[in-house]
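Risk register update: the risk that structure generation would not scale has been downgraded. Supporting records follow, first protein first.
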Amino acid sequence: MTTLATGPDTLTRDALAVLQPGFDGTTAPDWVRRRLGEGLASVALFGRNVVTEEQVTALTAELRAERDDLLVAIDEESGDVTRLDVRTGSSFPGNHALGAVDDPGLTRAVSRELGRRLAACGVNFDWAPSADVNANPDNPVIGVRSFGASTDLVARHTAAWVEGLQSTGVAACTKHFPGHGDTNVDSHHAVPRIDVDADTLYARELPPFRAAIAAGTRAIMSAHILVPALDPDRPGTLSRRILTELLRDELGYRGLIVTDGMEMRAISGTYGLEHGVVLAIAAGADAICVGGGLCDEGTVLGLRDALVAAVRSGELPEERLADAAARVRDLAAWTAGARAAASATVPDPEVGLVAARRALRVTRAGAAVPADTPVFVAQFEPARNIAVGDQTPWGVTAELERLLPGTASGSFTGEGGGPEALAAADGRRIVAVVRDEHRHGWMRSALDTLLAARPDTVVVEMGLPQAAPRGALHIATYGAARVCGVAAAEAVVAG
């Protein structure tokens, strides 16, 4: 039975406990330290907080000096969405590459090594994996973050990823419930809508979440998507029907429910940030992700005060807030008890590169000639989505410069990209690097231009390999992680 607050201090502490805020800087700000003493139970790290693993370790130690039972969360999916390797590119391939290999044991090994690294840095809560089924290849925000388009494949790899990560004492957060794969709008910008019937949702979107629950996932993240077959009025994050009646009651989930980033326009632009947070907790969410954009003390205090005011006005039952705060503290207690698991994990630092090599799909047109002299790397840059961010390098240039000294490169975008790249190559063999060619007409035209003039061009696709393979050599990596680039460069040289 939930214990209700006996005074305003308990109520305020519960309101702080459900927040998972970010902050600026690579050391612990004074305001965060103060709020930890007042009840804040979680913080979130983003790319702006990371320089090196040693620095992150020192940062988390500073935070835990204020509160030992602290959840330190991070959005570390590996692959394209990486925070720990934000400045170099990930040491692990992402979900789509792992799904292409389709070896759950390998997926488990990759997530276990990722968990070991996170735990060594003092991070104990990972907003991953993505359990979204990639039903729409034009999805602007999921793509290679999904294990694939097959529900069964996504389900078995989601379970393996959860098991591997949590074997190190790092809590997994399976996302984006009830499934973000069949959308054509990025919820960072607006409210996506999935217009399929309930039978399709139950058969296609929910099995990966059932598998994650069976595997013991400690947290599930809600999606800011409107699913009229489930709730015609409210997006998932704000829907009691989706979070409480479906996830809790029908699927039997008992762990933590955390929201996707509440600053995203799907929520803040429609309901307002503070009111959206109140609605989310009322609907059944237990923890509020905030701080990807708004990362100041004023935001935290405003959300705290909005929750307290909602309880006092009767809009938010005090019991619901107390229950949410208790779930946050329960998860923190689990991670504290599981810390020894990470130190017992045997390091496997090469597993990411092994997985990236296994994921490659190489298509040769006739007698593909290996590249044994310096080449020109033409990288065609699409706009990045917010989840991936613009800090993380990608491509094959660095590794080809190492393997073929004298290699040059250029970055191109837009309708003139093809002729510009051809001129910049100045007669050298071209390695054209693309990302989701099927989604970008200008990119397709650029490849047309290069291949018409230089049929010996090598094409490296580092997004979803939906377009037909072309070029003397076509290499699909199933993601743009650093190790995917290394594996692709090796294949370019091997021919």
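Supporting record for the second protein:
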Amino acid sequence: MAETTDASPSPVRAGTSWYVLTVLMLVYAVNFMDRQLFAVLQERIRDDIGLQDWQLGLLGGTMFALFYAILGVPIAWFADRTHRIRLIAMAATLWSGFTALTGMAQGFVHLAAARIGVAVGEAGGVAPSYSVLSDFFAEHRRGFAIGVFSVGAPLGLTAGTLLGAMLADALSWRAAFYILALPGIVLAVLMVLTIREPARGQMDRAAPAQQKVTPDAPLASRSGTLAAFAHMVQTPALFMFAAAAASTSFAGYALYQWVPSFLQRSQGMSLDAVGMYLSPVFLFGMAGAVAGGWLADRFAPKVRGAYGLVPGIAQLIATPLFIIALLAGSGMATILLLIVPTLLSYVWLGPTLAAAQNLSHPGIRASVAAIIALINNLLGFGLGPLAIGSLSSTLTPMLGAGEALRVSLLAGISLYLVGALCFLAAAHLERRRTA
């Protein structure tokens, strides 16, 4: 982290900070809504177009993640040098357009092209948002702020599940993609018209002028992707947080994509029932996201390594609860048993992302966030849904479609435990760094 002085952060009106946070959280919610829309409708898409589970895993996971993660790094490099608000607005417009095009797909190749387009757009939304929020909230409030921002994920999952199922039942799965592409465009226009680009580093303890980087400064204190990589190499806690996020996302994204299919295929629920009863479960993730950031901020001054300890303990508790939910004998029992572990599974977002921002200086924050997202998405998002789909396809001849998917999801849950251990290791590295 850049050296700081006792200088006070630049004043920003609380109302302005909360308005920006709210708008960015809604943009993030639309981001996840468009992802979940594909997951909740994939049974309809599979029957209409004629796809196999491994193809659905590619479309919902690997193909999407490759472009989302890889392009996120150069886009974040650009975000560290340009107008971030306009960049996020352009990204939202792009992914919304390709969401609409998803509804026009006639085969696997068409679907792949549309999902890649969505991924390219979404690659420009998240990392720049973290950078912007760091310029509206001081260090001791970033965990909570990013936790609130992260509410967009469960909110988007809820909206995608409920609205996608309702629109598909009332109209068609194609119409669902057309209609739910509109909110992203509306929010993009709202951002450009109402939010001004903040000064970088204005909420850090050292004023931006005091953090100016000179040509002979160490590489890790300069801006750019190379400097961000160098900084991460010199900060092992960041890499451990990235490994924890990747393991958690492997299990998480696998669940998000395949639980709707599991409830229909293995537990015999209808699509409208899945939309109605599963969607509220994701709302509990909102409490987990906010509570995780708040707890980490609260304990950090007294407990070294709090940003790793809080999510690590939460996931140790969540892992066996997820297993119990998947072994339940009915769809409603599974949904009810998913409530508590779903809440706990979102605790990691605020602490992890705040730790990454606090451990980096303003000139590389978007790039550091993008590198962590690269590792997270390639290993987690890219492999999780595909691994479950491929394992399910392999086991189907032996176990049948329903039980094959159940066994595959149980195997994927084990990565939550790996993530918990990585978070605890990150906490240890945090303590050593601050000792």
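DSSP finds 19 helices and no strands in the chain. On this basis the risk owner (M.S.) recommends closing the item.
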